[in-house]
Design a protein that fits this description.
Elements (H helix, E strand, L loop, with lengths): L7 H21 L3 H25 L4 H24 L6 H17 L11 H23 L6 H27 L2
Helix pairs in contact: 1-2, 1-3, 2-3, 2-5, 3-4, 3-5, 4-6, 5-6
Length: 176
């Protein structure tokens, strides 16, 4: 297990990090094809960084933290852009950031410990990407479905599941 910061896997996460402001800007300016391209670039780099780290022997607590922090930053910023367009609940990006902070502190990841995962937290992490991708991809393709109202309802369901996840993590932390 390597402890280097400069790894191929972290470089993939860095691509996602660099794509974040451009994807948010493209979303806010309704330049949907660029937003979709950057969104899907982020998805591909997220899907690749873990397998690349494992194949190259670059797995480390720091790499896991970099990956998850980059995911949280991407989702928070892009969901905030979508919230500014009234496509997702405005509270959702705040909850994404708070849930990641709780996850990091609870796992003691800043002290070099491995991140402590939870099933609902993992599914929520995937759902943040899916929710962001729905209106971006739909609009890039010129589709009308799913309608904005359904995207907003899905966003509120994700607000609820994020709250449940955060409460579950807190309950587990306080459990004697």
């Amino acid at each position: 297990m390597r402890q280097d910061f400069f790894t191929v896997a972290n470089a993939l996460s860095a691509v996602r990090l660099l794509a974040t402001p451009a994807c948010a800007w493209a979303t806010l300016t309704l330049y949907w094809p660029l937003a979709a391209g950057l969104f899907w670039l982020a998805v591909v780099t997220d899907l690749l960084d873990g397998p690349v780290a494992r194949r190259r022997g670059e797995v480390s607590p720091l790499g896991g933290l970099v990956d998850h922090a980059t995911d949280a930053f991407f989702c928070t910023v892009v969901l905030a852009a979508l919230a500014a367009l009234d496509l997702v609940p405005a509270v959702l990006p705040l909850l994404v950031a708070a849930a990641f902070l709780q996850y990091t502190l609870d796992s003691k990841a800043l002290a070099g410990k491995a991140l402590r995962t939870s099933r609902i937290g993992r599914y929520n992490g995937i759902a943040y990407f899916v929710l962001a991708g729905i209106p971006i991809t739909r609009n890039a393709l010129g589709w009308e479905w799913p309608p904005d109202g359904l995207v907003l309802v899905l966003g509120w369901l994700l607000v609820a599941s994020t709250g449940v996840s955060m409460l579950d993590r807190l309950r587990a932390l306080l459990k004697p």
